[in-house]
Specification:
Layout lengths: L1 H24 L4 H4 L3 E8 L10 E4 L2 E11 L6 E8 L9 E6 L6 E6 L15 E3 L4 H10 L8
Parallel strand pairs: 2-6, 5-7
Antiparallel strand pairs: 1-4, 2-3, 3-4, 5-6
């Protein structure tokens, strides 16, 4: 009888730990908050480093994720769909850009709010986009000197 009680208590402790882990893992997702989301679209010349699931941040705070990323065969741009928290309303002239966490860090989408009195609605497109900056091309320009000397 004592063994059964020990097994039941051990099982309950393992189950509680598993539930606690799932709650902790879900904190960064909308699954845990149950918040409402709305979509916005943007087209980037280069979405290097961005994948489905990449964070969308405003002032360093995660407010959404990238939900779709595909090549537009007519424009050759990367058409992106992001889902934002419903409580974050952006002005029409906001900027969306691919940013980097550091020299070797990962990429994320950064939103910079504009000053327009009109706001973006669900499904609207953010027109002012800034693409990823290639660290390799910047290093090549720096290593190359960037200026050409003319011989006289």
């Amino acid at each position: 009888m004592s063994e059964n009680r020990t097994e039941i208590l051990t099982g309950a402790a393992v189950l509680a730990a598993a539930i606690g882990f799932l709650a902790w893992a879900g904190q960064g997702t909308d699954f845990a908050t149950g918040g409402d989301l709305y979509p916005l679209r943007a087209s980037f010349r280069s979405a290097e480093g961005i994948t489905v699931g990449t964070d969308v941040r405003l002032a360093g705070v995660k407010i959404g994720t990238v939900t779709d990323l595909e090549l537009n065969p007519q424009t050759f741009f990367a058409d992106t769909t992001i889902m934002l928290r419903e409580d974050v309303v952006l002005p029409e002239d906001s900027v969306i850009m691919v940013a980097s966490e550091g020299l070797l860090g990962g990429a994320f989408i950064e939103l910079i709010p504009g000053g327009s009195l009109d706001n973006l609605a669900a499904g609207d497109e953010i027109l002012d986009t800034q693409s990823a900056v290639s660290v390799l091309s910047l290093m090549m320009k720096f290593a190359g000197g960037g200026s050409e000397e003319t011989a006289e």
